[in-house]
Write a structure and sequence with these properties.
The protein has six helices and 15 strands. By secondary structure, it is of the alpha/beta class. Strands 3-2-5-8-7 form a five-stranded mixed beta sheet, sandwiched between helices. Helix 2 runs parallel beside helix 6. It has one domain. The chain starts with a helix and ends with a strand.
Length: 306
């Protein structure tokens, strides 16, 4: 049962529009269908809401990742921008203009204005503090903040909410993402492969590329959810399966980071000679990241950088 448990666990790593249930398994034959809904297009600000305590170096890991999405941010390959180009194939298929993602405003709430135990509705409340027009609000909670469903059924989520005072039945919506820092609460669930998993083969954990298990784990989930958000922002874009528990651009490829991946093994990766850290993408400011595979709709395969 070890491999089955690990497959179930891996499905947790990439929770999306609605939280993926622990009992769900990835189907062998995956075809992400387009449901004719709008995608994220044009210039789009990525606005960050930091909830709880993050030190400057931790915030830099995340902001450098978003900066790295630009094709000119890193001269080295494989790069974060190369990884992101797989999502552009969804736009070609739907004949939609690709988005231009730019790091937007940042809000720091290190006084825990809503306490240290948050509901899903409070996550939306925090997301609404960011700009909503032509933007994605990204709520990041620190390691000492408990969130409804965190570790039990999800490591993060994305969704949408009515914009401002618009009519909740038919008004405009804005897209948001939430990801929690799992370092002290559930690293074996949400920070794998930088921590040994709870179930399955207990191989050695990989060295985190930015020397921060919690933040490097957050990057994995942020990347996965960002790919799902732009291609399925409002629940009627690209996905397979039920709309409330969809397989999306990255969640369709759980636990895959390099070629030859299988349950308990992230795949063949690059290794930093000086630190021993595993990674598969270069980013801005000399950063290295480990990013999840993205489902390539033109080949019906999970695309990896290495």
């Amino acid at each position: 049962m070890g491999f089955l448990h690990l497959l179930v666990l891996i499905s947790l790593f990439h929770s999306s529009l609605a939280a993926r249930k622990l009992t769900s398994l990835v189907q062998e034959q995956t075809v992400l269908q387009y449901h004719n809904g709008p995608l994220i297009t044009g210039p789009t600000s990525l606005n960050l809401i930091w909830y709880g305590r993050f030190n400057p170096s931790q915030r830099a890991i995340v902001t450098d990742f978003f900066t790295s999405l630009s094709s000119t941010s890193s001269p080295n390959n494989p790069s974060v921008s190369t990884w992101w180009k797989t999502t552009e194939k969804y736009y070609s298929l739907s004949k939609t203009k690709t988005p231009s993602l730019l790091l937007g405003k940042q809000i720091i709430d290190d006084r825990y204005s809503l306490g240290k135990s948050l509901t899903s509705n409070q996550i939306v409340q925090l997301a609404a503090k960011g700009e909503q027009m032509n933007a994605i609000s990204i709520v990041l909670t620190s390691s000492d903040v408990a969130v409804e469903g965190f570790c039990m059924s999800r490591c993060g989520t994305h969704g949408s909410s009515p914009m401002g005072a618009q009519d909740k039945k038919g008004g405009s919506k804005f897209a948001y993402i939430w990801v929690g820092n799992s370092e002290t609460q559930c690293p074996g669930q949400c920070a794998w492969p930088f921590h040994q998993p709870i179930y399955g083969p207990q191989g050695p954990a990989l060295v985190a590329p930015n020397n921060d298990v919690g933040l490097d784990g957050m990057i994995v989930n942020i990347a996965s959810l960002l790919a799902g958000t732009v291609t399925n922002p409002f629940g009627n874009g690209y996905f397979q399966g039920p709309a409330d528990a969809p397989l999306e651009a990255s969640s369709a490829c759980p636990g895959i980071y390099g070629k030859g991946a299988y349950p308990g093994y992230a795949g063949k990766l690059l290794v930093d000679a000086s630190t021993g850290a595993s990674y598969n993408a270069h980013g801005a400011n000399g950063r290295k990241y480990l990013l999840p595979a993205v489902y390539d709709p033109t080949t019906s395969t999970c695309s990896t950088l290495v």
